[in-house]
């Protein structure tokens, strides 16, 4: 039995050797997925910079953070710069750190009070009281649209939903960034890899 297990493990390890040159694909997939997310977020902050500063500053309807102008500059720079560096696979681990901080701030200050779900769905796991309350709003909205709007056209590309704005998406991006912090830019498909190769040849 022990011989059989060892034989299977050895075959498995040999099989993995054939895929070792593709291990950069996972990092590339994470990077490409995150690029448009952070680029669009950064662009939105930049295009409405004064509104962003007010939102960072206001304790009533915003985040109530200190030094709001500085915070807005840092967040905007991290997202725009991060999108560019992730696209290139350059300084991937380094840029992941401020982006992780940005996601943590977003989770703790914006999304956490709304629970887990990004989209209100009373039948999904972790549905909180806010999500359950949204069910009545959703049904009422559907009734209005069915009676007074072109409901079939409005829902032709997907169901009508209510945004819950929970931590779901931000937490997903945070996990992806943590993975990039470990993986780096990835083999062959990032400038990080080729920069590392050049430095290794230079140091020999």
From TrEMBL:
It is a multi-pass membrane protein. The chain crosses the membrane at residues 21-41, 61-87, 94-112, 173-195. Its main location: membrane. Pfam families: DoxX. It is found in: Cell membrane. One of its GO terms (cellular component) is plasma membrane. This is DoxX family protein. It comes from Acinetobacter beijerinckii CIP 110307.
């Amino acid at each position: 039995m022990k011989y059989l297990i060892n034989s299977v493990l050895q075959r498995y390890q040999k099989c993995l050797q054939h895929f070792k040159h593709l291990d950069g694909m996972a990092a590339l997939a994470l990077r490409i997925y995150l690029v448009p997310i952070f680029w669009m977020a950064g662009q939105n902050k930049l295009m409405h910079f004064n509104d962003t500063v007010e939102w960072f500053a206001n304790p009533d309807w915003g985040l109530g953070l200190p030094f709001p102008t500085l915070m807005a500059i840092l967040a905007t720079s991290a997202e725009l710069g991060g999108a560019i560096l992730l696209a290139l696979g350059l300084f991937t681990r380094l840029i992941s750190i401020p982006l992780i901080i940005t996601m943590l701030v977003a989770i703790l200050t914006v999304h956490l009070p709304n629970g887990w779900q990004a989209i209100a769905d009373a039948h999904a796991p972790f549905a909180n009281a806010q999500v359950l309350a949204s069910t009545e709003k959703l049904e009422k909205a559907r009734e209005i649209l069915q009676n007074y709007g072109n409901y079939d056209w409005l829902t032709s590309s997907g169901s009508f939903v209510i945004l819950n704005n929970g931590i779901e998406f931000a937490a997903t991006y945070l996990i992806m960034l943590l993975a990039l912090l470990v993986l780096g830019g990835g083999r062959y498909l990032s400038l990080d890899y080729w920069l590392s190769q050049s430095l290794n040849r230079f140091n020999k």
